Predict the structure.
Amino acid sequence: MVKVVSEWSRIAQEEREPRKKRAPWGVIALVLLTGLALIRNGSGEFDKGPPQPATAAAPDTGNAPSSLTTGPGPQALPRSVPDRIRIPVIQVDAPVTPVGVDADGWVAAPPPEDPNLAGWFNGAVTPGEKGTAVVDGHVDNAAGPAVFYGLGAVRKGNHVEIHRQDGKTAVFEVYGVEVFEKNDFPGDRVYGSKGTPELRVITCGGGYNEATGYQGNVVVFARLAGVR
């Protein structure tokens, strides 16, 4: 975790809605930069480690059409808190809990003792709203693999389904997966608004060092492709 600073204040201004005060995007970027407490704290018993994104999975440039739509993408949804995430290709089916900023200005993370739990950052838009929603989760803990252990195996065209409290499921199509070094995390690129409903799913990845944990973050880039 890390204290709030204003390095990405411009992004915060673009994303902030006038009807609701939102925490600065710098909070997300900087906390995820340090792993958002998603540092592997196991004993090194996992010989191979989690899968990592292939070079071919780097995000597309532009706005390629979705396989779920033949025309313009679906309209943005109203605000509704997410309560479940499903990523069928890696067999993820997990509850989602809101994570926010505490009184000291630190961002919370999903409890590490519950390996099958994801966190939605409640200072940003909800999945399906216009803007970039963020869901994170642990890659592993001392007991073994956690909810997003397989995130690096996700590929372009795969789907991420977010069930919301209004009963709707926002279906996002993946258009890129990358791993970024924590000391060179591109906050603007990851969190900046594209003007349409987007989703980022994030966990730790890259090389692992027992002293400092994972050296990077795996980031899935996805855009809203359907609603059911």
Remarks:
- The mean pLDDT is 77.
- The longest strand covers residues 213-227.
